[in-house]
Amino acid sequence: MTDLSSIAAFLGEPAPMDDVDAYEELEGKWGLRLPEDFKNLTLAYGDQSIAGYLTIFGPELYRDGHPESMREALERSRYIPHPILPSAGGMLHWGHTPYSDQLFLVPRPDGRWTVSAWVLSHAEWVDYELTCVEWLRGALAEEVAAEWLPAWEGNFELE
């Protein structure tokens, strides 16, 4: 179980995680194991938007096929440097902003999945050496170099 206390400090206590097998079907379909920290984070805070600005995909959106429905268009973009799941070896699309900035988890050779982002307004691909929990905590605390994110001003309401 991933420690989400660093996220809870900003977003409040997580929702109860009663759907522990929410990703089992998707993992079987894609033939891989998703990172535990991603699953725990999205079971607790996924399928919601933070302050109306940062949407984190969760089990419902994956079941509905939302991120997968965007895959082909994103992969056709000359700015997206890697394939996207369920493409073999693909990265996981896990969130976005209303300005079409896209968040991905990229599988690394050491087994970690780290955050990368396509920042539309800067026409820039940004790699972070952070897991999704580390990145989100840093982004909420304004400690991650992500000037493309809003100045939160203490407003972390989940919608």
* Count of all domains: 1
Q: Can you list the strand order of the major beta sheet?
A: 1-2-3-4-5-6
Rounded to the nearest angstrom, the radius of gyration is: 15 Å
Mean pLDDT: 88
CATH fold title: SMI1/KNR4-like
Structural class determined from secondary elements: alpha+beta
What is the total tally of β strands? Answer: 6
Fold and architecture overview:
The chain has 159 residues and is α+β, with helices and mostly antiparallel strands. It has one domain (5-140): SMI1/KNR4-like (3-Layer(aba) Sandwich). It is 31% helix and 18% strand. The protein is built from 6 helices and 6 strands. It has a 6-stranded antiparallel beta sheet, with helices on one face.
Key features?
single chain, 159 residues, alpha+beta, SMI1/KNR4-like, six-stranded antiparallel sheet, 6 helices, 18% strand, SMI1/KNR4 family protein, Knr4/Smi1-like_sf
Topology:
Layout: H1 5-11, H2 24-30, H3 36-45, E1 48-50, E2 54-56, H4 59-63, H5 66-76, E3 92-96, E4 102-107, E5 113-119, E6 124-127, H6 132-140
Antiparallel strand pairs: 1-2, 2-3, 3-4, 4-5, 5-6
Protein name: SMI1/KNR4 family protein
